[in-house]
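Exercise 7.
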Amino acid sequence: MSPRRNHPRGGDSPADRPGESGSGRGPERTETWQGEEWSVRPIAGSAAGKSYRCPGCDQEIPPAVGHLVAWPEYGGGVDDRRHWHRACWNAKDRRTTRVQRSRNAPRY
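Solution. The predicted structure, written as tokens, is:
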């Protein structure tokens, strides 16, 4: 008996499916936050080659960790893109605007 094929035959690679690409980027979606439309795109860990600073928690997103990229829909260019942890993006409405510091941190 021959082994079972777990993938479809033919040219049905991730790059051939609608809304997906073979570069590790998922389908782009639009969300509303603070009265503004934001484009949000998930980035797979295999496609994340650099480290970024998450604006939600101010912690580093190391290379090879999946995350989200978000930018304003209107007027947002390449310089306005921000890389977020998925959990931080989902919790953005529950976070305070103040920077959270530990008790021993300096107050500059």
